[in-house]
Amino acid sequence: MKLLLQIITLVLVVTGGFAQTQITHVEPLNWWVGMKNQQLQVMVHGKGIAKYAPTLKYNGITLKKVHRTVNPNYLFLDLQIAAATKPGTVILTFEKTNQKPITFPYQLLQRRPNSSQREGFNASDVLYLITPDRFANGNPENDNIPGMPDTLNRGYMYGRHGGDIEGIIKHLDYVSKLGVTALWINPLLENDMQKDSYHGYAITDFSKTDPRYGTNEDYLRLSKEAKKKNLKLIADMVANHCGLEHWWMKDLPDSNWINYQNQPLTVTNHRRESLHDAYASEYDKKLQSEGWFVSTMPDLNQKNPYLANYLIQNAIWWVEYADLEGIRMDTYPYPDKAFMAEWSKRIMVEYPHFNIVGEEWSTNPSLVANWQKGVVNRDGYVSNLKSLMDFPLNEALVQALNGDEKNWNDGFSKLYQTLSNDYVYAHPNDLVIFPDNHDMSRIYTQLNHDVDKLKQAMVFLMTTRGIPQIFYGTEILKSNPNSEEHGEVRSDMPGGWPGEIKNVFTETNLSKPEMDMLQFTQKLLNWRKTATAVHTGKLKHFAPENGVYVQFRYNDSQKLMVILNKNTSTYSLPLAKFSEMLPAKFTAKNVLSKEELVIQDFLILQPNQPLLLEIQK
What we know:
Number of helices: 16
Oligomer: single chain
Distance between the termini: 56 Å
Strand order of the largest sheet: 16-15-14-13-10-9-18-17
C-alpha cells in the first residue's frame, strides 16, 4: 500500500493530476530486477489510452512491443529487462498528437537476497488452514469500509464477522505453540461483492488486499511476523474465475477476456474426468473448462494471451512481494489445461524449491495423479504441479474410522486399499493429506463427535506419507452439528472477538474434552517437527486384521510403529506377523505418554486408542 501511494503521489506531481493522466490501473503494480524471466508484460488501463504511443528511456530496459485490443482503454506493453538492470523508477510516457504527454512512474525494486532459492512447504511441515474472517478480529476499525456493501453481520452465518490479518498476527504465538509450521489462509484479496463475500473466492482486485482484512502492507507484515515464528505462509489463489464486481467487468480488456462473454449464463458441468478421458466429447471438455463456476463468478479465458500473462505475473508478484513459501490453487482443473501447465512452470522456474498444491476434488486416485509433475499421461500432457490435495485418502480415512471391521472390505481396509493405489502417483509424499477443510463438514462431526476416532485420525495423518493439513479449530473439537452449511462449518474461533467467555488462545473456559484434545494435538504436532522418519522415511503397512491397522515409518536413524485400533476392549496384538520390521524382543518409547516399554511377542492395546511407538535400536 505504501508503494502504491508513492506511485500515485509521483503521478500527481508529474502530470498535475491523476484524472488528467487517464490511467486508472497499471499492473503488475511494480516489478523486480534480477528475475530469471527477463520479459514483463505491463497492462495499462485508462480511457482512450490505446490512442497514445508509449515510450520509455531506462538503462537496461527495452520496450519490445505494444499490443492493442478491441477495447481502446487498454494497452499491453512488452518489456525486456536485461540481467544487469539496476532498480529505480521507470518513467512510462504516453504521447498523442496535440495532447499533453501522459507520464507514469513504474517502480523496479531490488529482490530479497536468495529470493529465488526460497524453500516451499514439504512433508516436514504441518499446514494450518485459516478462514480469516472467522479466526480473530484484531482491528475492529476495519470491520466496515465506506462504499463496500457487505458489512459486518456476525448474526448471519454468511455475513462478514470481522476477522482480519491483525487478528492472525496477534495469535501467531498460539499457532506456533500448537506445533504447525505453515499457514494456509483462505484468499485475502478484495471481494467487493454485494453479499456473502467473506469466503474470499470472488476476487474483485487481484492486486489488492481486502480493506476489511487490512492492506497490502499488513499482508507483508503478516509474512514477516510469521517467519519470526518459523511459520511459512501459503497464499490461496484463484486463476479460474473472478468476482462479478471485479473492476474490469465494467470495461473488459478484450472481446474474449471471459468465457461465454456477452452470451447467456453457461455453468460448468463439473466433469473433471473429461479432461483425461480418452472417450470424452469436445462438448463435455469445453463445458468443464469454460463454463462458469457459479453465476457470480465469471469464468476467465486463459487462452487469451494477455490474461494468461496477467495471471502468471500476478502470482509471481505476490510470491515476491509477500515473501510466500507456497500457493494453494483453487479449482485447479477448471482453467484451461495447457495454461495451468504454463502457469505452474513459470512460477517454479523462478522459484525451483517452491511448492504449489492444486485442488482436484476427486476421490479417484488416477484423476488426481494425472495432474502431478512426473506422471506420464497417455494424452501427452506434461504437468508442472508438484503437489495435490489428497481427496481420495481423505474419503478413505472417514470411511475407515466409521466403517465396520467385521466386514472384510470395510473399516481400516479402506485406508489400506487407498494407500495401495499410491503407484499411480509420481510422488505420493508430496500430496497434501487432511481430515477436512473449509468446504466440507468438519471431521469431528463426520466422525459422529467421537473423540477417540478423531485422535486416531490425527495420529494417522501426522505419521503416514504426505504433507498434513488441519483446519482451524480441529484441535478443540470444532464441529457443525446443525447443518453442513459452509457458514456453520467456518464458524468463529472462540476467543477471537472481545468479551468472549470461551477463549482458545488463552485456554480459558474450554471444556475438559476440548482442553484434552488441544493438549493432545500440541504434543503430537510438536513431536512431529523432529520425526525425520515421517518427513522423508519409507512406509510399510500390513493389511488390517481384527480391527487393527499397522504402519511403519523408518529411515536410517528412526523407526516408528503406528497402530490404529478399533477394538472396544483391551486387545493383545501378536507381533509375529511384523517380524520383518521388529526383532523378537525390543524396547520402545510411547511417543504420546513418554512411557518406556520392553516388548516381546505381543502388545496390549487399550480400547479404541491409537499407539505410536518409537522403536529403540
